Amino acid sequence: MKFLLDLFDKFRPEFEGKKGRLKTFKPLFEVIEFAIFYPSDQVKHSPHVRDPLDLKRYMGVVLLAMAPCIISSVIFFGPYVLAMILVSYAVGGIAEVAFAIIRKGEVHEGFFVTGMIFPLILPPTTPLWMVGVGILFGVVFGKEIFGGTGRNPFNPALVARIFVTVAFPAAMTTQLKVPFSDAITSASPMALFKTQGVMTGYQELLMGQTAGSMGEIFHLGIILGGIFLMITKVSNWRIPVSYLGSVLLLSWIGHNVFLDAVAPPLFQLLAGGLLFGAMFMATDPVTCPYTRIGKYIFGILCGFLTVLIRGFSGYVEGVMFSIVIMNAFTPLLDHIILMVKYKQVQVKA
């Protein structure tokens, strides 16, 4: 490893500074360095400065929290899952590097999470070319056209998922697999309830023995990963708690009023992508409110929209739509809360 470090140090001047002959490709150099030496900044002598929550640590902890989902996906559906992840990183990474070169900026580590989340919220039968098209759309139209990481109003992985859902509905809804089976089905738990009124057993839902998007079905692993994020304070507990709490309350009320349309609370919680969305996507620090009250309102309204879309629309799943809709209202939420909390002081003449 020291040999590689010395090699990178030797060629670094070629990619940095005004005289660097390869300075145009500095973003690509940094991506490769980051992948090998995480984090990429190397300090040889004291004093050493530590940042308790820098961007690299944030992304690393999120990826670690998603490990149960990643591992369970590979176990359930085989090595094809790894191919989907590889395509997502390759195509999305190329797009990120291209925009960084055009802007003469850096490649931000945020893509390491986006590139992992997107394939995990796809069915395990999704063609590789569709994975590439989806992540390309998400990176370009969900983030880069707004100025890149930190300026995007919408979660790029969700933008990509909504795009492929609208563009290729059959592949997203009818080409599902049950773990350890090659049989293709369209019968996800939410679809079974909506079309036949049948509820899958809670133990099957918890352990991921149902059809669905490959990273969203092992709910026990999602719960553990989400708790880990909250304990490490990488995600703010207010959003998932208010999101899931509102779904439980509203679905309890809705199920008693509209028995056939709205699923019961615990089933709502364990079916579909609700837990994954609440733990890993609604908590995105870039696209969620930064005020405390805003986080509560954001989560509650996400829950309201999820129950509404699941029960009364033509879609069996409402998580991705609810989060993206609330992403659009995030700046307004924070603005209103700040205006109310910090009223303008009027000075009498």
What does this structure look like?
The protein has 349 residues and is mostly helical. The chain has 2 domains: 2-36, no CATH class; 55-335, Orthogonal Bundle (Ammonium transporter fold), CATH 1.10.3430. It is 62% helix and 1% strand. A two-stranded antiparallel sheet has the order 1-2. Helix 5 (80-103) runs antiparallel to helix 6 (111-120), helix 13 runs antiparallel to helix 15 and helix 13 runs parallel beside helix 16 (292-312). The longest helix has 24 residues, at 80-103. Mean pLDDT is 85; it is low at 45-53.
Which structural traits does this protein have?
349 residues; mainly alpha; Ammonium transporter fold; two-stranded antiparallel sheet; 17 helices; 62% helix
Uncertain spans, ≥5 residues at pLDDT below 50? 45-53
- How many helices? 17
Biggest β-sheet: strands ordered side by side in the sheet: 1-2
Average pLDDT: 85
Rg from alpha-carbon coordinates? 22 Å
Q: How much β-strand is present in the residues? A: under 5%
| Alpha carbon gap, first and last residue | 70 Å
For the record, the CATH class of the largest domain is Mainly Alpha
Class by alpha and beta content: mainly alpha
Helix content: 55-70%
